[in-house]
Amino acid sequence: MNPTPPRTPPRIAIIGAGPGGLTCARVLQRNGVPVTVFDQEASADARPQGGTLDLHLTTGQAALRAAGLHDAFTALARPEGQEMRLLDHTATLLFRHAPADGAAGRTEIDRAQLRHLLLHSLAPATVRWGHFLRTLHPLGDGRHRAEFDDGHTETFDLVIGADGAWSRVRPLLSDATPHYTGVTFVECGFDDADARHPDLARLVGDGTMMAASAGRALIAQRTSHGHLRAYVAFRGSPDWALEAGVRTDDTEAVRAALLAGFAGWDDRLLALLRENDGGFVDRPLFALPVPHTWTHTPGLTLLGDAAHLMSPFSGMGANLAMLDGAELAQALAGHVDPDEAVRAYEGVMLPRSAEAAEGAARGLATALAPDAPQGILRHMRRMYGQDDGT
């Protein structure tokens, strides 16, 4: 009897080296499945990675357990970063949640630290930097030829779109495009906050502070190394700066426009607009339609923001991306047929992400509602088990 020849593993490409794509690659490699990750950035450190993430036990942390990285995550994470404060525009404290000693339900970690952890868990040369996916050409039988901007091409049995809001893979599965939510964030930062901005550091505390009133909000998060990252949130046109005659790279003009929009707020809060180190970064918020689904197509699938871009007020974006990546990798490792694995993954992921996206849309509406912060206060009391029925 001739022995059964070993099964040739499928050629798998992940487009995008964000938390979801890297988690997927790590779990695949941990299960002996080869994979290549392509990312358009020139290097791992080509741009700042943003603020802090609260990784939930049943999503982000579950993905790290599947990746064999939970202990390493725990060594980097900041349980105290779970603290949450809600203020009104007078800087009156309305709500505060402080984590219990040893609490790990929504432990915080900087995005840059998480990316470093995931990247360094992969086999050398897994990620190919500076590769912008130009297009995918269907070849039949689920295979696709990927064409990159430098002209070189490679053929894959499965292409996983983990390439974010403006995914290059998504158009082969869905006609949906992200829409502007009507809300813009303007980001700024504070270095060495405890020493250089002590009043703000005390106002923000160890975790996240949000002050809201009548459709506007100021949000600040503590990250590692004494840094504070803040977001100015308001409803308006995505071209608000252009319409105001302000260039977004003109720090003082942006500052003046933002201060005018928050006139009447307490000076302790307005320090977030007056004292930042460096400039401001305009970040209009986009989201995919809810629900976002597609007809299963052999050889292609999506995860993370490419599949379910939603408002950050859910706190679920990175968590779901990492869970998507881990579950897709586990399905691929556990099925002989990659197409069956992808079908099983999509059958769970799509309804889960639709539910989360609906919650994110409600969260955004509540946070910037005309009666804010009252709706936020009710939500926080329910979320943290402090609902008194009022």
Identify the CATH architecture of the largest domain: 3-Layer(bba) Sandwich
CATH topology of the largest domain: FAD/NAD(P)-binding domain
Helix content class: 25-40%
C-alpha Rg, in Å? 22 Å
Number of helices in the DSSP assignment: 13
Helix and strand composition category = alpha/beta
Q: Strand sequence of the main sheet, in spatial order? A: 5-4-13-14-15-12-16
Compressed to H and E, one letter per element, the order equals EHEEHHEEEHEEEEEEHHEEEHHHEEHHHH
Q: Could you say which overall geometry the principal axes of the C-alpha atoms support?
A: globular
Ends apart, CA distance between termini: 75 Å
The largest sheet is: 7 strands, mixed
Describe it:
The protein is built from 13 helices and 17 strands. It is of the alpha/beta class and 390 residues long. It has 2 domains: 12-79 and 103-178 and 289-367, FAD/NAD(P)-binding domain (3-Layer(bba) Sandwich); 181-286, D-Amino Acid Oxidase, Chain A, domain 2, CATH 3.30.9. The longest helix is centred in the last third of the chain and has 30 residues, at 338-367. The mean pLDDT is 92.
